[in-house]
Amino acid sequence: MSGRHCFFKTQHHRFAQFTKTLLTSVSTALVLFILIAPAQAAEVADPSTPVTQPSLTQPSTEALISLNQATLEQLQQIKGIGPAKAEAIVRYREGQGAFTSLETLQQVPGIGPALLERMRPYITL
Questions:
Q1: Rg of the chain's alpha carbons, rounded to an integer?
Q2: Tell me: the pLDDT tens digits for 18-34?
Q3: What is the DSSP secondary-structure string of 4-72?
Q4: Rounded to two decimals, what is the model's pTM?
Q5: Bridge partners of 65?
Q6: CA of 38: how far to CAs of 28, 49, 52, 56, in Å?
Q7: Contact 46, 105 (CB under 8 A)
């Protein structure tokens, strides 16, 4: 076997070992990340500590849209309400008077219990 052929074979072997070691290290790091990240995210704060940041899932009281006062444009800002449903809400309000409860909204054509529940965090009377 020539010296040159032996040199390339040795270099190829070293590269293969390096690649294998690198892939093993990266795989181990990825597995650890997948296992540790959810555990850190699931840590719960002390319930006696008051929450100082506003909730990102619930809008503040000032951000609620009044079903009895909102314009068509304002109603369309509610999750799940497009132009047709906004128009139906205004038509109902003009024909039947002010909404007396959020549940009354289900009397508007196209708004059922599921949509009402999705809208509930964003609306008020």
A1: 30
A2: 778 867 877 776 566 67
A3: HHHHHHHHHHHHHHHHHHHHHHHHHHHHHHHHHHHHHHT----TTSPP-SPPSSS--GGGPEETTT--H
A4: 0.50
A5: 123
A6: 16, 22, 23, 20
A7: no
